[in-house]
């Protein structure tokens, strides 16, 4: 049973449980999809039935943003933990390092995935990054072939939502990978192009504020967040 937050069902899991589930999915034939929606993505799914359908069929749906946690509280069905995509990805890499499982990094501007691979292999000794590709390709076929030829078990697909989830739904099976995770701008963080909020901001659930200070152009996207909580309050009042 998933916890519904404004039309998207979330797995009510801790970070450790999410990683355990991902490791179990890596033992089964794929493809499996993991998504890490934040409020903006939930709102996007509300306007895009195809995307909402893909999320409802995903194997793992993790609450990335603190806004999802607040909305779940307002709705009266609290989620146990926020599971940021980047923390989930990091913990998962820590667990597969040294096991021989093969990770492919897809997305971001040319050069970013390669830099992320170098940083991650240094951070997680024994991690096998079996290939990388930037996210600005015109044809899907060569990218699918590259992932398949690399023998990837796990793919981090970082094309932004909903593009990455739609790409996984359409092409995941052809890649031969067992688990594909939509991770937005994570490769930029792993490559050191964008820094993560300091721990104080993370602890207070204010990562969004740090991001806004660093990238003020996101204000238009973020201005919709209060509306998200208002929608949750409205849904609660209507009893839905
Ligand atoms: N991106 C990409 N291909 C595209 C569009 C976007 O690879 O066609 C990348 C972009 O370079 C960035 C990521 O997708 O690395 C999206 O980052 P954003 O912060 O917008 O995603 P979020 O984490 O908010 O979902």
Task: Please tell me about this protein's structure.
By secondary structure, the protein is α/β, with parallel strands linked by helices. It has helices at residues 15-26, 39-47, 49-57, 66-74, 85-96, 112-123, 140-150, 163-175, 186-190, 199-203, 207-214, 219-222, 225-238; strands at 3-5, 8-10, 32-35, 60-61, 102-107, 128-133, 154-158, 179-182. The strands form 2 sheets. Strands 4-3-8-7-5-6 form a 6-stranded parallel sheet, sandwiched between helices. The protein has a two-stranded antiparallel ribbon with strand order 1-2. Strand 1 and strand 2 (8-10) form a beta hairpin. The model has no long low-confidence stretch (mean pLDDT 94). Bound molecules: uridine-5'-diphosphate. Uridine-5'-diphosphate (UDP) binds next to helix 9.
Which helices and strands appear, and what pairs or packs with what?
Elements: E1 3-5, E2 8-10, H1 15-26, E3 32-35, H2 39-47, H3 49-57, E4 60-61, H4 66-74, H5 85-96, E5 102-107, H6 112-123, E6 128-133, H7 140-150, E7 154-158, H8 163-175, E8 179-182, H9 186-190, H10 199-203, H11 207-214, H12 219-222, H13 225-238
Parallel strand pairs: 3-4, 3-8, 5-6, 5-7, 7-8
Antiparallel strand pairs: 1-2
The structure holds uridine-5'-diphosphate (UDP).
